[in-house]
Write a structure and sequence with these properties.
By secondary structure, this protein is α/β, with parallel strands linked by helices. The protein is 52% helix and 13% strand. The chain crosses the membrane at residues 24-52, 58-77, 89-112, 118-142, 154-177, 183-204, 216-235.
Length: 544
């Protein structure tokens, strides 16, 4: 069928290259365009995971929408086959502009509108339609250059396409992201895409173009490349403006690590804010309340050896090191940049009481799950100060298997405390954590601590006039702020009511009565019948 439609090449204008050379150039363009297309796809998934969280959901949205849109693009391309050269040139220019600018627009939507989900779906749809239109037009062009049977042409095209996708998929995490970052990497990819598509059509197929089509392609491609180049020059200014919109005007440190984006705001320890991937995790105004509630109930008993999982900011370690009978503290943090910042930043190190200077503290840069599997020590207290269980990257750290590893690491009479999310805003996630701890072989006693009014000193979109300014918890449905912190205290034997043990330092904001009331309040919110989360079947999701 294809041979019958494109066998007119003998009657068409002679190409400026030999058939073998032309075929090679078309396949080279396929290779480059496929690499660029996969970079756009990965860039959308990665940036959406950073900005929105829950990488599995974001990857599913991008991939499913894009594959669906590719089918639509393939159907629409049928109408362009009689003008394959100019159609392919315009499609590549549009793909270069939309794909290259997608990271900028997605980040701008997050920074100024506080919402990037709709932009994510829109870009996935547009990029998918344009990628889907490529293959039918390239099929026509390759037979225009070197007529061959349809099966051979399809095999050549898809081979070049798949190899290009491999190169793009490897270039994104190992070259573009670490060397150029999300924004500049996407812009550069768009420029390469425009050059490859435009050069193929304007050189190899220039005799198939009318003078008007040739001028149109030149103007469109030059304009696209000029827009992308201008955006690349201004990308640093854009990032600074976007950061001010997200974090306020007092950004002191902003660094992209191999794990996350880390931002510090505020001029001193009393105004400090720590953001991880755009989410306010620590506010100096009330962090002590969260960390006191996390640490002190677990310290009621033997406490010579303490293990902290997460907590690279050093604030949980500060509370632990207030106990004079603690002999050693091991802190396992996946992002060494966070612990380095906690050591060296004047405001953060002052806020954590210079915990990293204490010789009793040893910091380890590792994934907590992997580290526990290899560690064979026993600990009197294990403190799990990890991100929200709803964030997919941390889901395994809230699994029954993970708590089973912790149970094996506990000494006789050892205790575990877990930050489990806000029980009032996200009750199913909270009680799934509690069920998972029990499935790991431990008895549990959940408790909650309400936040205190703290205002919104940073101007961050997620700030709120009541509750508390920061914690590892996300906002609830509709942007509803959490109104409490939820914890699960656990041990191999029966667990009493949370309280302050003998020799405990005096907390700034908590007392025995409030902790006991927190346990009763948590029991009043209990959701029976929650099933544990496992590695094979994770059970944390967005709650509405």
């Amino acid at each position: 069928m294809i041979d019958q439609q494109v066998s007119l090449r003998g009657g068409a204008a002679r190409l400026p290259v030999r058939p073998r050379t032309g075929r090679f150039l078309v396949l080279a363009a396929v290779f480059v365009c496929a690499a660029c297309g996969l970079v756009y796809e990965l860039e959308l998934v990665a940036l959406a995971s950073y900005l929105i969280g829950d990488s599995v959901t974001q990857a599913s949205v991008v991939l499913s929408v894009m594959v669906f849109a590719m089918g639509i693009g393939s159907l629409l391309a049928k109408r362009l086959r009689c003008h394959a050269a100019v159609g392919f040139g315009l499609i590549e220019a549009a793909l270069a502009l939309i794909g290259g600018s997608s990271a900028l627009v997605l980040y701008a939507s997050f920074a100024w509108l506080g919402e990037s989900q709709y932009a994510l779906v829109g870009f996935s749809l547009a990029i998918g339609v344009l990628i889907g239109a490529e293959i039918p037009l390239l099929m026509t062009l390759i037979q225009r250059v070197d007529r061959q049977d349809a099966g051979g042409a399809v095999a050549d095209l898809f081979a070049a396409d798949y190899v290009g996708a491999l190169v793009g998929g490897l270039a994104f995490p190992f070259l573009l992201l670490p060397m150029l970052g999300q924004l500049t990497g996407a812009l550069l990819t768009g420029a390469v895409n425009a050059v490859a598509g435009g050069a193929l059509v304007l050189w190899v197929f220039r005799r198939d173009l009318t003078p008007g089509s040739r001028r149109l392609l030149v103007v469109v491609n030059v304009s696209v490349i000029a827009v992308l180049a201008t955006a690349t020059v201004l990308v640093d200014d854009f990032e600074q403006a976007a950061r001010r919109a997200v974090y306020g005007d007092q950004v002191r440190v902003a660094v992209r690590t191999g794990v996350q984006e880390v931002v510090l705001t505020g001029t001193d320890r009393d105004s400090l804010g720590l953001y991880l991937d755009g989410r306010l995790r620590v506010s100096a105004r009330d962090e002590h309340r969260y960390h006191e509630a996390l640490v002190h109930p677990a310290m009621d008993g033997p406490r010579a050896r303490v293990l902290i999982l997460g907590g690279g900011d050093g604030l949980a370690a500060r509370e632990v090191l207030r106990y004079r009978d603690v002999r050693s503290v091991t802190l396992v943090e996946i992002d060494p940049a966070v612990t380095r910042l906690a050591r060296t930043d004047p405001a953060l190190s002052e806020l954590n009481g210079h915990a990293y200077r204490d010789p009793r503290l040893t910091a380890v840069g590792a994934d907590a799950f992997t580290w526990l599997r290899a560690d064979h020590h026993r600990y009197d207290v294990v403190i799990s100060d990890l991100p929200d269980p709803g964030v997919t990257a941390s889901t395994k750290l809230y699994s029954a298997e993970f708590y089973g590893l912790i149970a094996e690491a506990l000494a006789p009479r050892g205790r575990l405390v877990v930050h489990a999310g806000p029980p009032e805003v996200r009750p199913r996630s909270f009680w799934t954590v509690e069920a998972s701890v029990r499935a790991g072989g431990l008895a549990t006693r959940p408790y909650r601590i309400p936040g205190r009014p703290s205002g919104n000193p940073s101007g961050h979109p997620s700030g709120h006039p009541s509750g508390f300014t920061a914690s590892p918890d996300r906002l609830g449905a509709g942007g509803r702020p959490p109104e409490d912190w939820g914890f699960v205290l656990a041990a191999a034997g029966p667990v009493g009511e949370p309280g302050l043990g003998a020799g405990a330092p005096v907390p700034r904001s908590l007392g025995e009565a409030e902790l006991r009331e927190g346990a009763r309040a948590a029991d009043g919110l209990r959701l029976p019948g929650q099933v544990p989360s496992t590695l094979i079947h994770p059970r944390y999701w967005e709650e509405t």
